[in-house]
Design a protein that fits this description.
homodimer, 305 residues, 2 domains, six-stranded parallel beta sheet, three-stranded mixed beta sheet, 12 helices, 9 strands
């Protein structure tokens, strides 16, 4: 049974396209409207049959019971403002941004009081982007984090529950958390890893000592793993770092401090300290696999092909 | 046709076990002797049927045409010394160490002049270790780097060619390089990526702001990729960093310098600089895939299961 009669997805990239496909495949919505600010993306969304593609945002959200803002974090406020006048009373609005406090501020300021804003973040994706990258099973068994606003009203609580039902229908596991906590946790589990990957890959492109083609040729010895996450959408990630600055700088400071200690241990030949640290890091892998967050197959199973 | 009548593999971990299995499966050797300094590993190697397991290294290498030292870099000198008296005249000795200059020094000093030492490094492996982790196809379409010593003698050149034939028979692509160059290139493509991964994973274990179980729970948002290479054998990696200190410290210095610039760009909200860097990093992924060094499937294809 449909959770919502009609939904509108604003932004038809990897995440927006996947939501549209998953909502149809699961039957979580009966009618799926889409809008993207880029005319070429709208055209491609039509060709892919992602839903009823509209050429204006107010038209897309008219009569929608749920509106999903699936644009980069820095564009959330503008996307909300562009839809605002089309929203029906009682519409639920959510987003998929990787940062929550900044989005809460920007979107809340743009929406009318007759809509319910329930911020969210699906921890799902690939290194690919654009409408062609979307697929219906993207959210299966992945976490969807909701960071509801601090409202005591029963109608708001009901809107949150209903959005949770929607994500369950798409195959996700749902967690609730406050926006501040979300931003700290994701700075560690997602933002810093991406920053480190971007940094090492960009660095390797213009070394004096080793050519780029050598790096590519011998990348299977470790480097290639980093190129995957460094292939993620640059606009999305620019916005993440600009909008979660404090938490990212905090954890980056800690990373650099620890790296300096490791550097010193290498310089002074402290084998026991290196061993102890590497052994400690190794244990985390087991826990990640036991938690169902990665495959146990060696090399991510990529050598099976 | 066999490249060698009899080979001996010293060290029955992931790499040694894989060489034994690959040599048998490919027919590259008719008799495969093995030795490991650890009695439990020898026992396991017998149970797995990896070859003729010997309880002493001199016995294992007796009459061997090729001896492969497959132990951590820091144990290479001792492994060579332990076999030295058993080596027949004209035996070829190679190794699989991830560092070459330090191994060349340690092994050359331990071997008799009637053996040919041809250093080597297969760029192949998984995050697993021990005899059970070995498999026969590990070297298929992976690089095997040989760093021959600077000899003008024709018999030495013939030994290098024969070792190259052996690795081809195991499915590898062979490159020759000098040892110093190898150590600089691998510091970038392998040693630094592993160091960074060990550092971020160990850091995430004892943060004040975020618990270890939160990191594990939400690791699929990026962090999990790092846990894979941080699960690699700690003894092996300790020895790599202790024995390729100069090249690692050099490239680590450059990484930290670039990371400081990135940190500054975040602090000052320099969106254009961030975008340009992320966009540049993205291109490298394409080249890695075009070079056949990684799968093009999103998320390494691990979500197929």
């Amino acid at each position: 049974m449909a959770v919502f009669e009609r939904i509108a997805v604003i932004g038809a990239g990897l995440i927006g396209a996947s939501i549209a496909l998953a909502a149809r495949e699961s039957g979580a919505a009966n009618v799926i409207a889409l809008y993207d600010a880029n005319a070429e993306v709208r055209q491609r969304a039509r060709e892919l049959g992602l839903g009823d593609v509209s050429d204006d945002p107010e038209g897309a959200v008219a009569q929608a019971d749920l509106v999903v803002l699936a644009v980069p974090v820095g564009a959330m406020g503008a996307a909300a403002a562009a839809c605002a006048r089309g929203l029906k009373a009682g519409a639920i609005v959510t987003d998929v941004g990787s940062v929550k406090q900044a989005v809460v501020e920007a979107v809340s300021a743009a929406l009318p009081s007759h809509a319910y804003f329930v911020p969210g973040h699906p921890l799902a994706g690939t290194e690919h982007s654009g409408p062609d990258a979307g697929f219906a099973t993207l959210f299966h068994n992945r976490w969807q984090i909701l960071t509801p606003l601090k409202h005591d009203r029963a109608d708001y609580a009901a809107a949150v529950d209903r959005l949770e039902d929607f994500w369950h229908a798409l195959g996700a596991n749902v967690e609730r958390m406050d926006a501040e906590r979300h931003d700290v946790v994701l700075a560690v589990t997602s933002h810093l890893p991406h920053l480190i990957a971007f940094n090492i890959v960009a660095m390797a492109e213009d070394l004096e000592s080793v050519t780029e083609s050598e790096v590519v040729k011998y990348s299977a010895s470790g480097f290639r793993d980093f190129t995957r996450i460094a292939a993620s959408d640059p606009t999305m990630w620019r916005d993440v770092f600009l909008n979660n600055k404090d938490a990212v700088l905090e954890v980056l400071g800690r990373f650099s401090e620890d790296l300096a200690a490791l550097q010193r241990a290498i310089r002074w030949g402290e084998g026991d300290a290196l061993y102890a640290l590497f052994d400690r890091a190794r244990r985390m892998r087991r826990e990640v696999i036991e938690a169902g967050q990665d495959t146990a197959a060696p090399n991510f199973g990529r050598d099976r092909s």
